[in-house]
Specification:
The chain is mainly α. The chain has helices at residues 8-27, 35-49, 55-73.
Length: 74
């Protein structure tokens, strides 16, 4: 049986994911619909499935991951 998205746990997960993404983008003045914003959204989802479940954990891991990727891209 699958868990409903409207359950308390599902809503908390969505809030953690969106909160981390919105905070990360706001701190860097990045639009959510920009290429960088879309990449960050994909990364935050991957991090969630890797075990980062709170907004703070996701935000920290997202910052670490994307700053490492930016270093390697330059």
């Amino acid at each position: 049986m699958s868990q409903s998205v409207t359950s308390a746990g599902g809503l908390e997960d969505v809030e953690a994911l969106s909160g981390a993404l919105f905070s990360w983008c706001a701190e860097r003045s990045i639009r959510l619909r920009s290429q960088e914003g879309v990449s960050a959204a994909g990364a935050v989802i991957e991090l969630f499935f890797a075990g980062y479940t709170t907004q703070d954990e996701l935000l920290g891991a997202l910052s670490d991951r994307l700053s490492r990727e930016a270093i390697f891209a330059s």
